[in-house]
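Hi support team,

I submitted a single chain yesterday and got back a structure, but I'm not sure I'm reading the token output correctly. Could someone confirm the output below corresponds to the sequence I sent? I've pasted both exactly as they appear in my results page.

Thanks,
R.
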Amino acid sequence: MDEGEPLKMRSWLFAPGDSDRKMEKAANSDADIALFDLEDAVAPDQKPAARRMVRAFLDNADAGHERLWVRINPLDGADALADLAAVMPGRPGGIMLPKSRGRQDVELLDHYLSAFEAASDIAIGSTRVIALVTETAGAMFTTGDYAGAPRLMAMSWGAEDLADSIGASENCNPDGSYGFTYELARSLCLLGAAAADVAAIETIQGDFRDLEALKARATRVRRDGYCGMLAIHPAQVPVINAAFTPTAEELAAAREIVALFEANPGAGTIGYKGGMLDRPHLSRARQLLASAEG
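Hi R., thanks for writing in. Yes, this is the structure output for that exact sequence:
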């Protein structure tokens, strides 16, 4: 990515932090963001080694640090500070905060990051954050509280940890769709991200072989308002990138709508192709054009 170019957030590809090979594949993929994982993908006894490996990978990366992010462990555990102490001198582009309990966790992480940035001569506030906001039962009730949270640029949700939190044996219906509680989590994440004016990022699809199902799901959640999606396999990245990239036809229609309102600045509604456009249509057209620019 060129310096000054907006950071795209369509695809976020996980790679376990204890695998140099998988981190290399993620970094060299077409994923907008490579996520080196120190949490769920790493066994407890391997976490110290994984920290050293992620730090070494960051140190050896010549460029592109803005798209090399790290998922640390939850703030209420014993590993998060050790994770940050290990990786922050390597200048990751951002931190994924798992099992966020609410805005207070993002604020606490901001304090930690500021201290590590100062110690490593990194510009204060330059390390961005994405929060996973529905991974515990209590966190479901705080998804609307993130407006103005420091460093926050995106919110995502999780179904597996939420199921564990509430003692559910399954999180999907017999047809493979998410159950009501998990669809609620998806909606609350979307609404919370909109309220906080940050990007909403869809959770993973575990079956990385079914790319047609991935395409259908990514297309559907983008239509709902999501801006990108988490991935667990490089094969998922091109499908996600395509699904979250506006088509030429969509961009042309959006430009036409904007031009119509600019030509009629005093109009509240405008006739268009047999229907009526109003100001929300203009807002959505402008948002689509803005998303195409990152």
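A quick pointer for reading it: The longest strand covers residues 11-16. Let us know if anything else looks off.

Best,
Support desk
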